[in-house]
Amino acid sequence: MSDGPHRSLPMKRNWKSVAERADNRSFGVDDISTAMIPALAGDCRDEIRPGLIDRVRGIVEEQESLLIKDNVGDRIAALRAEAGHGIGQRFIDNVVRIAAKDIPETVDLVEAMTAALAERATRGSWQVEEHYLRASTASRANNVRARLEQGRLGAALDGLARQILRLDNDRPARSIAKRDGLEEGPRLK
Fold it and tell me: Is the pLDDT reported for residue 180 higher than 90?
């Protein structure tokens, strides 16, 4: 008997864990939300080039102390080539969009990173759903999709955004805590 379609999912181990929790009703929505944080943190490590966050923060923090502001959007847009791909590009796009309306502040950086993380979580959920549609039944895929959406909505993306932007002293979670005892398994309903 197969352990489930999540085993053959062509994604990183943390995303497979998210898929397993979404497929298994023994895990609650909060377990899915908790599993998404290390998966997204791993994506950030892979998709955001080193130094990008510090450079964007430096530009924004510099503007907060200036009396006459310069065009932050152009300076940040110039970093697009250094942004890497995926989340890094979306973060730059979001900051440039905010800068078009107003001078961005540190709070706006958190908002921009949270939006980039939410988009990446949605893309990851779509990948999982597509795999379940191919490897399982449509009803099972729909169930997984609904639980992944609930998990994404409950995930503390703003907290992860603050960690990635190095606004909090806490480091992003590296992996999901393993539950290996009888008393540490998924909650029973």
Answer: no
| Residues near 66 by beta carbon (within 8 Å), at least 6 away in sequence | none
Helix axes 87-101, 106-135, angle to 10 degrees: 140
pTM to 2 decimals? 0.82
Asked whether the predicted pLDDT for residue 14 surpasses 80, the reply is yes
Instruction: Count other Cβ atoms within 10 Å, centred on residue 50.
Output: 9
Which secondary structure element, helix H or strand E, spans residue 144, and what is its range? helix 138-154
Cα(160)–Cα(121) distance, integer angstroms = 12
The per-residue pLDDT for range 77-89, each reduced to its tens digit, is 999 888 888 899 9
Under a CB-based contact definition with an 8 Å cutoff, are residues 78 and 92 in contact?
A: no
Cα of 23 vs its chain's centroid, Å: 20
Angstrom CA distances, 143 to 22, 23, 25, 129, stand at 8, 7, 10, 9
The C-alpha atoms of residue 64 and residue 105 are separated, in whole angstroms, by: 7
DSSP string of 74-98, one letter each residue: HHHHGGGGGSBSTHHHHHHHHHHHH
Contact 60, 44 (CB under 8 A): no
